[in-house]
Amino acid sequence: MMRENPADLAPELCVLAGAVLGLLTGIFLPRARQWIAAVICAAALVAGLAFTVIASRRPDLMAFGAFAVDPLTHLTRGVVLGATVLVLGLAAGPLRGHARETEFSVLILLAALGTVTLGASSDLLVLVAAYLLASIPGYALAGFGKDAPGTEAALKYYLMGAFMGIFMLAGVTLLYGLGRATSYEPLRQGLAAAPGAAVTVGTVALLAGLLFKAGAVPAHYWIPDVTEGAPPVVAAFVTTVPKIGAFTALFRLAAEALPSTVDRPSLIATIATVTMTLGNLAAFGQDNVRRLLAYSTISQAGYLLVPVAMAGRAALAEPALLFYLAAYAVTNLGAFAIVVAAGRDTIAAYTGLARRSPALALALAVCLLGLVGTPPTAVFVGKLLMFGSALQGGYAWLAVVAALNSVASVFYYLRWIVPAFGGPSGPPVTLHRGAQAVAYTAATASLALGVAGGIALTV
Fold this sequence. Notes:
With 459 residues, the chain is an all-alpha fold. It has a domain at 264-459. The protein is built from 19 helices and three strands. It has a three-stranded mixed sheet with strand order 1-2-3. Helix 1 runs antiparallel to helix 2 (35-55). The longest helix is centred in the middle third of the chain and has 32 residues, at 148-179. It is globular, with a radius of gyration of 21 Å. The model has no long low-confidence stretch (mean pLDDT 90).
């Protein structure tokens, strides 16, 4: 069903209104009261979540001929908006009283809006616009600290994004010329009659931009430097939230726009294999916890590409992607929340954390073992579904590769966990209460999702 009713975009309009109202409010507030703008932005996100719940109970439709309102969109909305609320909570302590606190909140909301639009786009032109909206605020956020590492991170982030964006635009242009349409359904029909080699070239170019947002090989180079150089709260955001829209956009493209003349499953499966393997291998030698988490997010991108490769081949592909995205979001944000709470960047600095803060150490273990896929965490259920989709789609070798990579990842996560629960207690540190609350919330959510998902699978 196709409609042109702005009410169908109520969650997105809430986020946009929150960004505008927050910016206007912040202009007239003194530095000590900039938190009011952040509260407005958070309220807009909560309102968007409420409208998302209402929209999820209605039949699927196509808004304005380019914005799909279906389960993929509902999941994207819910996870992006919920994760962004956690990021604003994570920023409450470190950024309280900052001269540009309002700018931070507004940029976060605009990037989240772009991410939701990216996942819901059903037209190539809207996809490109969403890519820009999801990317440009992130470049500014990466350099938010205005220090040398942040400036370098922002420059690398921008240059990689612009470079991949050029390939993406070239791919859109080529596919439009071949398929004579930008809307996914007619584009698929048009591309089916086009030369296969040309369609493949256009597809690879188009995927470049989305792989950049997803943090997958070969567009992953920005992630370690941005994660280490940007403020920790920004690192938590850019390694979590934009990925959600990128993967739903990749899945929608694979399922709705690309014809069978392109060997899409083999192409994406190959990228997934290289991505998860490179991420894990690079993480082994990291002593900086932020760089370790950066390479961890790259490996997670490889796992998330597995259901994307199986789109249209396995019935489990869509539920696997949707559940894994939600599981990854809460778990990864929880890990970064612990880094923000502790204010330490080296593994050695976490020695004896369990003696100083047992609850935080427990949350660390839950989140890191959750990223491995240890039961009963949410990522465990997500990986089970991911393995099932690969087997169902006839790619048993890909499931084996993902399983081997999951086992290998245990070792570098344990390099962080073991010192935290052993050794002498380190020097006392001041823990950020807001970040602790986010860490505990995320760890609890990871366990709750895992238990609920496990129950659902057995019913």
